[in-house]
Design a protein that fits this description.
Distance between the termini: 70 Å
Helix content: 55-70%
Low-confidence stretches: none
Number of helices: 2
């Protein structure tokens, strides 16, 4: 396990350092440093997933109603 130092002089605030660099660049009138580009990963088609979910729920609802209707008919006939 890595040891974490509790000494203040050994700690670094990376956010603060990046913010200072950006402010300094803007004050100089230069382009501030940019964060590294995010890695591209698989992109989910949320609309397609939503449509599939709705269709599945509608099918379940229909089969649940059919099952309930058949059970009710059996009780009345029996």
């Amino acid at each position: 396990m890595a040891r974490i130092s509790a000494e203040p002089h050994e700690q670094r605030d990376h956010y603060r350092e990046a913010l200072d660099q950006m402010v300094t660049a803007k004050l100089r009138g230069t382009e501030p440093p940019h964060a590294p580009a995010a890695r591209a990963g698989p992109v989910a088609d949320l609309m397609a997933m939503l449509q599939e979910s709705v269709q599945a729920a509608q099918k379940r609802r229909v089969t649940d109603k059919d099952a309930a209707g058949q059970a009710g008919r059996r009780r009345r006939m029996g």
